[in-house]
Recover the amino acids of this structure.
């Protein structure tokens, strides 16, 4: 098991955002997390990073208890995050952004990793000396993913990578997720509003509601489940 | 012959020398009446005095300056061309900043030669350079790391008092005290940094403001230590490699004037101080520019952009912030040491909040993070009140008005452009 969360609770002041979460991710899997706005999906991802810190429960990554580590220490264990809203460094260039992603990585891999990211996203190479803030939304999302990959993570967390993107970009993003997993063996935890597509690419999925996991199963099972269909598929996002 | 002057790049060395020689010749022709010959009042009659040494120096500066400028222009043009090849947007602002930089450097080096007997000009230029240095120091904290610091003058004060006390109490020389005072100021930077690690923006500004005031209030009230409101006087002036700038040489030794066989002049010391702060400022510039290209400098900028993203990339934001505070404070401390050595006297009055505000204004007007912008803004902010002397009480009004106008004219600061810290060597990308 690459990652396990056991009975994790998290609070923002008196808001009880996570109420006993049990989630696990195996090596080589794509696991998706779906849920309504405010369900606690981003909180779950950030609590993996100790921000906010789990107020109860245990988080184990790669055999090590990381519940009490600080955010940057956790990141150095090999978890990379593509945060909600991308959070690229807008005034720095595309290339500098990628380089920041490699800040903690072995410099020996730098050239190869840049080449790999550019091969995956040729547009980033064309724009490499451009200020990242001037990229389009989709390009920024690619940059955020590229930046996360620069650290050679064992586990990649993606928080709503398709948010606000045109259908063509959404397709592209999901294709990248699939390729990363299939061709590079990347383990991925994916948070999505776009339940239909997310469940199609994922091996397994969890449904989060009001800070609790209400359903779990394989992607296909969840796609077929009446609850999921009612709440997240019909009348919601098509695709 | 003058066609050479605006010829395109790609000149041969011989052409360059000829070009520079031509400029030097013009300088010589102009220089004979302007510099070479001066009239002096000898017992009521005017007599002509020759200053051919100075003239030679001016001609040499014109020659060297032209060579350097030509070279800088060519390099700029070459770089511009290669950038265009790399398919990136070239920034006009950056090109302007580069050219301005070389011109400013040439002017700064030549200034005391051209105004060797004008005390006022050299003094004012020294003040400009102190602010440039302070601006560059604060630029690390505010411009690069994005931490709003309203109490920067505290570190300036720490450096000044450190030198004042080390020299008057323990007889330390300027050069001995400089690194130690810088280290003490850096220590204060870390001291301030720790409690405010979690603060940002407005809250950070308020706490740093308080810190600046605390230091000043301590200096005013702790009379045994700092001399209170009276400050500390008779601070030794820096010497030129052990040669003092005094009228008479010490017993069995030399003063600066006697060693070089010059007639004593009070200007020697002023000019020396000017070059001293120029060198300190240039070192600061080189240091900060270098840091910007190192991981720590890039981490500062990333921190300014997005703290959460920094952490998620495994960066220790605590260390990044503290290093920015420490280095900014150290540079402020160096400026303080120089200030104390130049004035020969320090008192809390020199370290009031207005100073912090002016230094911050220099960074903001300059364009947050732009090194050349700081130079422009410092020059403006020192010169405006000087020119404004004619307007007596309206002087500060003029000063404020100028600041408002600059911000309206260029909301991002005079030179708001940020030069990337790295590019791929080969023109990678181009066409696919
Ligand atoms: N920094 C914060 N301070 C206080 N409350 C917060 C904070 N961040 C999130 N919350 C609250 O925690 C709950 C879960 O938020 P979270 O961002 O995890 O939702 P989400 O599932 O990611 O939603 P969305 O799909 O809209 O991104 C919400 O009620 C939210 O208001
Ligand atoms: Mg969210």
């Amino acid at each position: 098991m690459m990652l396990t969360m056991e009975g994790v609770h998290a609070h923002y002041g008196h808001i009880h955002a996570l109420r006993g979460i049990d989630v696990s991710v195996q090596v080589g899997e794509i696991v998706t997390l779906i849920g309504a706005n405010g369900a606690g999906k981003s909180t779950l991802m950030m609590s993996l990073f100790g921000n906010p810190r789990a107020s109860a429960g245990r988080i184990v990554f790669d055999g090590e208890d990381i519940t009490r580590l600080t955010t940057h220490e956790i990141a150095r264990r090999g978890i990379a995050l593509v945060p909600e809203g991308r959070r690229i460094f807008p005034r720095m260039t595309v290339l500098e952004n990628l380089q920041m992603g490699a800040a903690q990585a072995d410099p020996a891999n730098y050239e190869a990793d840049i080449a790999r990211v550019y091969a995956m996203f040729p547009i980033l190479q064309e724009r490499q000396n451009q200020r990242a803030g001037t990229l389009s939304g989709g390009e920024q999302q690619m940059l955020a993913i590229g930046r996360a990959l620069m650290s050679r993570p064992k586990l990649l967390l993606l928080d709503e990578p398709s948010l606000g993107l045109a259908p063509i970009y959404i397709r592209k993003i999901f294709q990248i997720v699939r390729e990363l997993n299939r061709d590079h063996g990347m383990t991925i935890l994916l948070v999505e509003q776009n339940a239909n597509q997310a469940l199609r690419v994922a091996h397994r999925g969890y449904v989060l509601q009001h800070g609790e996991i209400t359903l779990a199963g394989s992607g296909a099972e969840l796609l077929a489940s009446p609850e999921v269909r009612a709440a997240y598929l019909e009348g919601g996002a098509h695709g | 012959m003058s066609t050479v002057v605006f010829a395109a790049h790609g000149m041969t060395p011989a052409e360059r020398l000829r070009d520079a020689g031509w400029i030097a010749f013009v300088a010589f022709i102009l220089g004979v009446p302007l510099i070479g010959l001066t009239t002096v009042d000898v017992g009521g009659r005017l007599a002509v005095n020759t200053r051919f040494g100075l003239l030679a120096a001016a001609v040499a500066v014109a020659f060297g300056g032209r060579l350097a400028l030509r070279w800088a222009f060519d390099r700029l043009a070459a770089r511009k061309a290669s950038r265009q090849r790399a398919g990136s947007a070239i920034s006009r602002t950056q090109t302007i900043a580069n050219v301005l930089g070389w011109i400013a450097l040439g002017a700064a080096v030549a200034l005391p030669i051209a105004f060797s007997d004008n005390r006022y000009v050299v003094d004012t230029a020294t003040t400009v350079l102190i602010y440039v240095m302070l601006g560059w120091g604060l630029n690390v904290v505010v411009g690069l790391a994005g931490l709003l610091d309203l109490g920067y003058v505290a570190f300036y004060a720490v450096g000044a008092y450190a030198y004042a006390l080390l020299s008057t109490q323990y007889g330390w020389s300027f050069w001995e005290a400089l690194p130690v005072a810088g280290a003490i100021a850096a220590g204060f930077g870390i001291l301030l940094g720790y409690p405010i690690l979690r603060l940002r923006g407005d809250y950070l500004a308020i706490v740093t403001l308080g810190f600046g005031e605390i230091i000043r209030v301590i200096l005013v009230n702790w009379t045994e230590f700092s001399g209170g409101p009276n400050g500390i006087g008779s601070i030794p002036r820096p010497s030129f490699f052990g040669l003092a700038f005094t009228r008479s040489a010490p017993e069995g030794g030399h003063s600066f004037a006697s060693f070089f066989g010059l007639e004593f002049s009070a200007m020697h010391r002023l000019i020396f101080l000017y070059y001293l702060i120029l060198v300190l400022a240039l070192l600061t510039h080189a240091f900060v520019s270098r840091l910007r290209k190192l991981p720590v400098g890039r981490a500062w900028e990333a921190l300014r952009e997005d703290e959460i993203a920094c952490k998620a990339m495994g960066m220790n934001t605590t260390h990044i912030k503290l290093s920015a505070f420490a280095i900014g404070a150290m540079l402020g401390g160096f400026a303080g040491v120089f200030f104390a050595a130049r004035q020969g006297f320090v008192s809390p009055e020199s370290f009031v909040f207005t100073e912090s505000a002016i230094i911050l204004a220099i960074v903001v007007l300059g364009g947050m993070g732009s090194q050349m912008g700081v130079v422009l803004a410092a020059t403006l902010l020192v010169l405006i009140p000087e020119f404004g002397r004619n307007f007596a009480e309206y002087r500060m009004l003029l000063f404020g008005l100028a600041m408002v106008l600059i911000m309206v004219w260029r909301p991002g600061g005079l030179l708001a452009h940020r030069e990337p810290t790295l590019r791929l060597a080969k023109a990678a990308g181009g066409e696919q």
